Amino acid sequence: MKTELPLAPDTDTGSPSRRVFIQVVTAAVGCGYAGMIGYPVYKYLASPIEKAEAAGAVSEVTLPKADELPKGSATIFKFGNKPAMLIHLPNGEWTALSAVCTHLACTVQYEPEKERIYCACHGGTYDPASGKNVSGPPPRPLDRFQVKVQPGSVTVTRS
Protein backbone atom coordinates (compact mmCIF):
# COMPACT_ATOMS: atom_id res chain seq x y z
CA MET A 1 0.00 0.00 0.00
CA LYS A 2 1.29 3.34 -1.03
CA THR A 3 0.67 6.43 1.04
CA GLU A 4 1.22 9.95 -0.16
CA LEU A 5 2.61 12.51 2.16
CA PRO A 6 1.07 15.96 2.15
CA LEU A 7 3.16 18.70 0.51
CA ALA A 8 4.64 21.41 2.66
CA PRO A 9 2.75 24.66 2.48
CA ASP A 10 4.24 27.36 0.22
CA THR A 11 6.70 29.20 2.41
CA ASP A 12 7.84 31.77 -0.21
CA THR A 13 7.62 35.15 1.49
CA GLY A 14 8.71 37.11 -1.57
CA SER A 15 12.30 37.57 -0.40
CA PRO A 16 15.14 36.14 -2.51
CA SER A 17 16.65 32.84 -1.54
CA ARG A 18 20.13 32.65 -0.14
CA ARG A 19 21.39 31.21 -3.43
CA VAL A 20 20.01 34.13 -5.47
CA PHE A 21 21.48 36.61 -3.01
CA ILE A 22 24.95 34.99 -3.26
CA GLN A 23 24.71 34.98 -7.08
CA VAL A 24 23.85 38.69 -7.18
CA VAL A 25 26.63 39.64 -4.75
CA THR A 26 29.15 37.51 -6.68
CA ALA A 27 28.14 39.16 -9.97
CA ALA A 28 28.44 42.64 -8.44
CA VAL A 29 31.90 41.90 -7.01
CA GLY A 30 32.98 40.43 -10.37
CA CYS A 31 31.81 43.57 -12.20
CA GLY A 32 33.72 45.71 -9.70
CA TYR A 33 36.94 43.78 -10.26
CA ALA A 34 36.46 43.92 -14.04
CA GLY A 35 36.10 47.70 -13.79
CA MET A 36 39.17 48.03 -11.58
CA ILE A 37 41.24 46.15 -14.16
CA GLY A 38 39.52 47.43 -17.29
CA TYR A 39 39.69 51.18 -16.61
CA PRO A 40 43.49 51.42 -16.28
CA VAL A 41 43.91 49.24 -19.38
CA TYR A 42 41.54 51.54 -21.28
CA LYS A 43 43.41 54.67 -20.12
CA TYR A 44 46.74 53.11 -21.12
CA LEU A 45 45.50 52.21 -24.57
CA ALA A 46 43.57 55.45 -25.14
CA SER A 47 46.36 57.75 -23.90
CA PRO A 48 48.23 57.98 -27.24
CA ILE A 49 44.97 58.78 -29.03
CA GLU A 50 44.08 61.52 -26.53
CA LYS A 51 47.59 63.02 -26.81
CA ALA A 52 47.39 63.01 -30.61
CA GLU A 53 44.00 64.76 -30.52
CA ALA A 54 45.27 67.37 -28.05
CA ALA A 55 48.43 67.94 -30.07
CA GLY A 56 46.48 68.54 -33.24
CA ALA A 57 43.96 70.86 -31.63
CA VAL A 58 46.13 73.86 -30.69
CA SER A 59 49.77 74.39 -31.61
CA GLU A 60 50.27 78.02 -30.55
CA VAL A 61 48.88 80.41 -27.93
CA THR A 62 49.58 84.14 -27.72
CA LEU A 63 49.27 85.72 -24.30
CA PRO A 64 48.75 89.49 -24.50
CA LYS A 65 50.61 91.58 -21.90
CA ALA A 66 52.31 88.46 -20.52
CA ASP A 67 55.66 90.15 -21.16
CA GLU A 68 54.79 92.36 -18.16
CA LEU A 69 54.83 89.31 -15.83
CA PRO A 70 57.30 90.11 -12.99
CA LYS A 71 60.43 88.01 -12.53
CA GLY A 72 59.88 85.09 -10.17
CA SER A 73 56.20 84.67 -11.01
CA ALA A 74 54.01 82.52 -13.22
CA THR A 75 50.61 82.47 -14.83
CA ILE A 76 48.39 79.53 -15.71
CA PHE A 77 46.73 79.53 -19.14
CA LYS A 78 44.84 77.08 -21.30
CA PHE A 79 46.78 75.34 -24.05
CA GLY A 80 43.91 73.78 -25.94
CA ASN A 81 41.90 71.98 -23.28
CA LYS A 82 44.82 71.48 -20.86
CA PRO A 83 46.34 73.92 -18.35
CA ALA A 84 49.85 75.18 -19.00
CA MET A 85 52.15 77.49 -17.07
CA LEU A 86 54.24 80.42 -18.27
CA ILE A 87 57.06 81.17 -15.82
CA HIS A 88 59.26 84.26 -15.72
CA LEU A 89 62.22 82.88 -13.80
CA PRO A 90 64.12 85.01 -11.25
CA ASN A 91 67.14 85.07 -13.60
CA GLY A 92 65.01 86.73 -16.31
CA GLU A 93 64.57 83.66 -18.53
CA TRP A 94 61.15 82.45 -19.66
CA THR A 95 59.82 78.90 -19.73
CA ALA A 96 56.46 77.34 -20.52
CA LEU A 97 55.47 73.93 -19.20
CA SER A 98 52.41 71.77 -18.97
CA ALA A 99 50.65 72.38 -15.67
CA VAL A 100 49.45 68.77 -15.52
CA CYS A 101 51.37 66.49 -13.15
CA THR A 102 52.71 63.40 -14.91
CA HIS A 103 51.75 61.21 -11.95
CA LEU A 104 47.95 61.49 -11.73
CA ALA A 105 47.15 64.59 -13.82
CA CYS A 106 46.63 67.04 -10.95
CA THR A 107 47.30 70.73 -11.66
CA VAL A 108 50.72 71.82 -10.42
CA GLN A 109 51.64 75.18 -8.85
CA TYR A 110 54.75 77.34 -9.13
CA GLU A 111 56.35 78.14 -5.77
CA PRO A 112 58.95 80.84 -6.43
CA GLU A 113 60.08 81.11 -2.79
CA LYS A 114 61.13 77.43 -2.91
CA GLU A 115 62.22 77.59 -6.57
CA ARG A 116 60.09 74.61 -7.55
CA ILE A 117 56.89 73.49 -9.20
CA TYR A 118 54.83 71.51 -6.71
CA CYS A 119 51.98 69.02 -7.05
CA ALA A 120 49.89 69.03 -3.90
CA CYS A 121 48.18 65.72 -4.71
CA HIS A 122 51.13 63.48 -3.81
CA GLY A 123 54.05 65.83 -3.16
CA GLY A 124 55.77 65.65 -6.54
CA THR A 125 58.23 68.43 -7.37
CA TYR A 126 59.68 69.66 -10.64
CA ASP A 127 62.47 72.04 -11.64
CA PRO A 128 60.84 75.25 -12.96
CA ALA A 129 63.60 75.94 -15.51
CA SER A 130 63.51 72.54 -17.23
CA GLY A 131 60.34 70.80 -16.03
CA LYS A 132 62.37 67.78 -14.90
CA ASN A 133 60.90 65.73 -12.07
CA VAL A 134 63.00 66.26 -8.94
CA SER A 135 61.23 64.23 -6.26
CA GLY A 136 58.07 62.36 -5.47
CA PRO A 137 56.06 59.95 -7.58
CA PRO A 138 55.98 61.72 -11.00
CA PRO A 139 57.38 59.25 -13.55
CA ARG A 140 58.58 61.79 -16.12
CA PRO A 141 59.18 65.53 -16.63
CA LEU A 142 56.47 68.04 -17.47
CA ASP A 143 55.92 68.68 -21.17
CA ARG A 144 57.89 71.72 -22.29
CA PHE A 145 56.83 74.37 -24.81
CA GLN A 146 58.77 76.94 -26.82
CA VAL A 147 58.49 80.59 -25.70
CA LYS A 148 58.88 83.69 -27.84
CA VAL A 149 58.73 87.05 -26.05
CA GLN A 150 57.69 90.07 -28.14
CA PRO A 151 56.82 93.58 -27.08
CA GLY A 152 53.26 93.40 -25.76
CA SER A 153 52.85 89.61 -25.74
CA VAL A 154 54.37 86.18 -25.26
CA THR A 155 53.76 83.36 -27.75
CA VAL A 156 53.91 79.76 -26.56
CA THR A 157 54.31 77.03 -29.19
CA ARG A 158 54.14 73.27 -28.90
CA SER A 159 57.60 71.73 -29.33
TrEMBL record:
<dbReference type="InterPro" id="IPR014349">
    <property type="entry name" value="Rieske_Fe-S_prot"/>
</dbReference>
<feature type="transmembrane region" description="Helical">
    <location>
        <begin position="20"/>
        <end position="42"/>
    </location>
</feature>
<dbReference type="GO" id="GO:0016020">
    <property type="term" value="C:membrane"/>
</dbReference>
<dbReference type="InterPro" id="IPR036922">
    <property type="entry name" value="Rieske_2Fe-2S_sf"/>
</dbReference>
<feature type="region of interest" description="Disordered">
    <location>
        <begin position="130"/>
        <end position="159"/>
    </location>
</feature>
<keyword id="KW-0479">Metal-binding</keyword>
<keyword id="KW-0812">Transmembrane</keyword>
<keyword id="KW-1133">Transmembrane helix</keyword>
<dbReference type="GO" id="GO:0051537">
    <property type="term" value="F:2 iron, 2 sulfur cluster binding"/>
</dbReference>
<keyword id="KW-1015">Disulfide bond</keyword>
<protein>
    <submittedName>
        <fullName>Rieske (2Fe-2S) protein</fullName>
    </submittedName>
</protein>
<dbReference type="InterPro" id="IPR005805">
    <property type="entry name" value="Rieske_Fe-S_prot_C"/>
</dbReference>
<keyword id="KW-0472">Membrane</keyword>
<keyword id="KW-0411">Iron-sulfur</keyword>
<dbReference type="GO" id="GO:0046872">
    <property type="term" value="F:metal ion binding"/>
</dbReference>
<dbReference type="InterPro" id="IPR017941">
    <property type="entry name" value="Rieske_2Fe-2S"/>
</dbReference>
<keyword id="KW-0001">2Fe-2S</keyword>
<dbReference type="Pfam" id="PF00355">
    <property type="entry name" value="Rieske"/>
</dbReference>
<feature type="domain" description="Rieske">
    <location>
        <begin position="61"/>
        <end position="156"/>
    </location>
</feature>
<keyword id="KW-0408">Iron</keyword>
